[in-house]
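INFO batch 0412 | record 1 of 1 | parsing
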Amino acid sequence: MKRVITLSLATILVLLCAHAVAAQDWARQRLEKSPRHREWVTVKHDNRSVETFVVYPETKDKRPVVLVIHEIFGLTDWAQEVSDEIAEAGYIAVTPDLLSGMAPNGGRTSDFTEAKATEAVSHLNPDQITADLNAVADYGLKLPASNGKLFVAGFCWGGAQSFRFATTRADLAAAFVFYGTPPPKDAMANIKAPVYGYYGGDDARVTATVQDTIAQMTDAGKTYETEIYGRAGHGFMRAGEAPDASEPNTRARTKAWASWKAILQKYQ
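INFO prediction complete | emitting tokens
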């Protein structure tokens, strides 16, 4: 007699998320080989202490700051590795662990199980997220190595948060949204910075929002430029550099990196 096991959609998503996080040893190995200075700092505001990963570029000049917002998996090895790549490109990367103090015994992402980290990120309070991001952005701008320019970039869940952060932070030079959903239409009027979005052609859930977002941002008089990469899936910036990367994801990642760095150069 066969036994049929039915999994809920939530359970399937948790399992997929756990696999994505567990398969990041390659990211840790690349990070460990980096010659750039990296450190953990504690950014305090109100009653919060936000553990933040900082990576410095190897340069003699003061450089812009890129506030990096992690995926729904929390501040994983890949989130740290991509922060190092941002520093390699010549920018100070400041990446807050938005699960700081949220794990058992007041820990952060590394103190959660993979599935629990995903669940915890999905339930974070939006006002707390905004306050954490503002505090870390302010910390980055005050660094002696900073030239006072601030960018924000986020991936997946973090992509949606970077778009939302642009509705609340007036001094952004630009916002970069990697496969993240848009904020409510009414909030778009508050955006001051140009927004650049990068999407996978096979990421139906998120990419289906792009055309309406273009229309809404245009109506609001805002700059919103997008690139959609055919056959690339959700999460291609991470998946495109993994050892088992598909050709469409690798191609999308390469093109997105080139575009991203060119735009950063334009505004710095």
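INFO post-check: The mean pLDDT is 93.
INFO record closed
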